[in-house]
Predict the structure of Post-transcriptional regulator.
Amino acid sequence: MEKLSWRQRFLVKKELKATCQSFRELGYSSVDEKELMHYLVSYRWKKNAPSSIQACREDILHIKPNEFFDYQQLIAQTSSLTLNDWHDLKDLF
């Protein structure tokens, strides 16, 4: 699954918002829907995409912060950016 259509994105928007809200309640205020969607499409569903919209919705609601941040750490480690290129580090301190 490379991309979701506008219709598919619309159908899972409620679950994305709910997951982002649950992350915020746990203290992870910097996660937004766009980052979460990128994680789903480019990593979590890359090889094994859910077979239906309902399965997508359920999967979104079961994302743990640890899973998402493991992906973020992987991206940071494999990125060609240097420390000077990272402008928004205030969440780390």
Remarks:
- Residues 6-81 form one domain.
- DSSP finds four helices and no strands in the chain.
- The chain has one domain: 6-81.
- Residues 39 and 68 are 7 Å apart (CA to CA).
